[in-house]
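Q: How would the structure tokens look for this protein?
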Amino acid sequence: MQITGIIAEYNPFHNGHAYQIDQCRKMGADYIIVVMSGNYVQRGEPAILDKYSRARIALEHGADLVLELPVGYSVSSAQTFAYTGVNLLHQLGCVTHLCFGCENPDKIKELAFPIYQIFEQENNFAHFIQKHLKNGHSYAKSRLKAALEYSGWAVEKQKNYEAILSKPNNILALSYEIALLQMQSRMKPIPIQRLGAAYHDAALATPSSATSTQMQHTNITIQDIRTHNDTSTNTQSPIQNIPILPSATGIRKILLEMNHFDSACLQPFLPPAALNVMQDIYQTYFPVEMQDFSPALLMCLLQFTEEQACNILDMSPSLWNRIKNNLTDYTDYLSFIDTCQSRTFPYSRIRRALLHALLNIQTAKQQQWIKQGIHFYIRPLGFRRQRAELLSCIKKNSSLPILSKLADYKTTLAETPEGIQMIEEEYRCDTLYRLISQAKFGHIQPDSFSRELILL
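A: Here is the predicted structure in token form.
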């Protein structure tokens, strides 16, 4: 029996995600389990769509079971995000394959074991990491650059590999492969060639006339898409070829620019279930964006002492000083990130540190949980009724308890205080997301203890 795991954010679920699930089926997956970020995502922001809605969309498009990745891990660096996601699948005890998308599958497979071996000697090149951090690179990128320098490979080879690893999906893919090696997991990696716009690309991708794997990017506006849909015979349309494999960043940009839900505009990029779910909850549950959290972030930052701030994940005394010194210029969340960024503290670092501050994600607590076992429960968000035997398989093979009803967490996790702490942190962060959404849309939403599993 082949059980394939996918680690995802689905922020939001689009045609590229549907393609990945379809490819898993074609490669023999009997069951597909998705480990998904909750209401906050790895790039350091709230998800545009709540986790229950995203879980429903994934199930309607072929996933059999959706599990939640705890918030402290889902908002962490690529390395921690990948490692903890793989670890959850590993601890299920029955997952046979791990599927992920990347730009260069063959190169990632080639690099995985050598880089893994170099990372095992990290103490020997820690000074290289610090050098790259001071030059404004993220920790993940600094670690990779340092590993390549330490490798002893020819300079040209280092440059080629660095170019490959500059792509976000390749970094995540390499992190997945290395996590499998670190755990000596029996799961087999299945890298899939990513097509379309790049991960962070705000543009939307159109099929290239050159090859099926090389895509052209073009900055497309909502009006461009409407014009194309209204005048399909117009040879001057800015999107002659309908974009089908976009980046999630590009889709979020379109969603946030809309003044009403335009299914025709989104139809080229999103599968039917995503469109239907979004349309049903538009302006009652979503879209949620960083700017909605602006007052909450300001209040949080004003109340921190220096000691409290420096306990926050990804925060340092120098970064906190920069943030504190810029507070007098605070107007909103996004502008404040721009104000605080510098060569030493790039945009991505500031964005993630501010989200950790907003959610009070603490370094010591995360390190403690990772040391104690990483995961202490299995939290399903939804599953397909006809595939319920998958849960039975997990119960048989995993030592982790399945927490199907959140209200039972103290009883279910009575012997695991770390698990209780983790659930309470999740609940606190989810409550903030829900209340911000309620305040924005004026629509009362059920809290986490009232939510039922998504059953299809």
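DSSP finds 22 helices and eleven strands in the chain.

The two ends are 22 Å apart (CA to CA).

Upvote if useful.
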